Amino acid sequence: MENEMQQKRFRQEREALKKMERTVNNCPFRTQYHIMPPVGWINDPNGLCQFRGVYHAYFQYSPLSVHGGGGYWGHCTSPDLIHWEYKEPVLTTDIPEDAGGVYSGSSFIENDRMYVFYTGNVKQPGDYDYIDSGRISTQILTKSDDGQHMSGKIKLLGMEDYPKNITQHVRDPKVWKEDGRYYMVLGARARAWDASGKRSDKGGILIYTSDNKEKWSLYREIVPEHKFGYMWECPDLFTLDDMRILSFCPQGLLSGEENYQNLYQSGYSLLSVYDPDKEHSVRQNNRTAECSWNPEETFREWDMGFDFYAPQSFVDENERRILIGWAGVPDTERTHRNLSVKNGWQHCLTLPTELEYRNGKIFRRPVRELESLPWMKKDAEAADGEKRKYLWKNQTIEIIEDGIAGGERQYLIGKEDNGLTIRVSGDRVELNFLNRNGEPSACGGGRKVRAGRVERMVEDLLVIIDSSIAEVFVNGGEIVFTTRIYLEKKDRELVTDGRCRILAI
């Protein structure tokens, strides 16, 4: 019966795709090297892994609605993290525990089998707040021998298994194995009150442990003493260069001029104690290093741009820690929008990036496979005090400048009255969609300004534009900006006052 329901939903998806195929394929904003929905909506990357030499990316997918809904896990595969082939969806809402959505989760590879963990969501009909009542969050396991066909679903944890102080918001399992035991980290929202007695919930995480991947018990509950957002989503706990890292998405942080500029944030914290005067002490002590369970104290944002959320990482067969994020943010309808909606699709994922830990920070750069693409070199040098224009009718371009040395640079992507300006000055980088009248340019869909600073000064810049997404890597990935940009082909220009190199495909 469950399989019949699933097949029915998959037939609906194929019919919708066929109906929208012409409109979607003719859209000028379709990307070449980013995962995007064949039709409809995409958000969180899920289950990222390399299995039998093939990279698998699953994702939240709603083919029947351009505005989302959480009905499927979509699926695509790649031999190289650059060229992706779309497959049939692998999960849908076909049991009572996931009737409201097959929410985010992870994959774990062991003994030539894929174990897939995710959250089943149910919202009961009625007058509920869906925080303390009306919601059922269940952690579920399914298995696969090929990455495409899943076994029956097994309930692992239900509402009765969570601490009493935790609300009904518990989701996004990430599973790993360490020292012979399995661990699962979950995002959570804990009930809390401020000094005046007013409700003021705190975000946190729950860590469970297991001997067999099916029976789980609570290992640690981490809720900061001082509130750091009211909910933590999409947690990812891993080790990088023997440093313990927690990646998570805190909701409810107050925005600043150059930090926490989006509605919801995503970033990482160093749980291992970092001492700059004893750089190698953690490496020498390995996992015995002292661990701090106050993630709010060392939190850094993964991305400073308009469009980045819900990242997930995995280790490939070459021992690289690779991270992919959703090039979007929830609930942005009042601030900005995506202009691809009129053509039947919305959102994409980011380029895969390699993570490297250096001196208390994580640097992330595009995977090295990107260099193997057939780039054509174009120079765009400008003499002092002059500007140079480059027309990029190509769908994908790369802008490289490595001689900034703390100076000032400006790059206009698009036209003066409709474009994105990247400004570099000293230690500061700014992305600005405002036109000469101070109004948001049409190509930004309402996006305005984002800014960030590096530790010392800006030395180099790498900008990759793939049709409707731009990713800016500063100082080898010390800070990164991701944004969507919707330029028609006739408006695709680059004006620079620097001596950058242009590579195009």
Describe the structure.
The chain has 505 residues and is mainly beta. It folds into two domains: 36-366, 5 Propeller (Tachylectin-2, Chain A); 374-504, Jelly Rolls, CATH 2.60.120.560. Helices cover 6% and strands 45% of the residues. The protein has two helices and 34 strands. Strands 1, 2, 3, 4, 5 and 20 form a six-stranded mixed β-sheet that branches. Strands 23-34-25-30-31-32 form a six-stranded antiparallel β-sheet, with no helix packed on it. A six-stranded antiparallel β-sheet has the order 24-33-26-27-28-29, with no helix packed on it. Strand 12 (202-210) and strand 13 (216-222) form a beta hairpin.
Question: What is the second-level CATH architecture of the largest domain?
Answer: 5 Propeller
CATH topology of the largest domain: Tachylectin-2, Chain A
The separation of the N and C termini measures 48 Å
- Our count of domains comes out at 2
* CATH level-4 homologous superfamily of the largest domain: Glycosyl hydrolase domain, family 43
* Helix-strand makeup class: mainly beta
Put simply, the count of helices is: 2
What is the level 1 CATH name of the largest domain? Answer: Mainly Beta
Q: Which of globular, elongated, flat, extended, rod-shaped describes the shape?
A: globular
Summarize the biggest pleated sheet.
6 strands, mixed
Return residue spans where pLDDT drops below 50 for at least 5 consecutive residues: 279-289
Please bin the fraction of helical residues.
under 10%
CA-based gyration radius: 23 Å
Percent of sequence in beta strands: over 45%
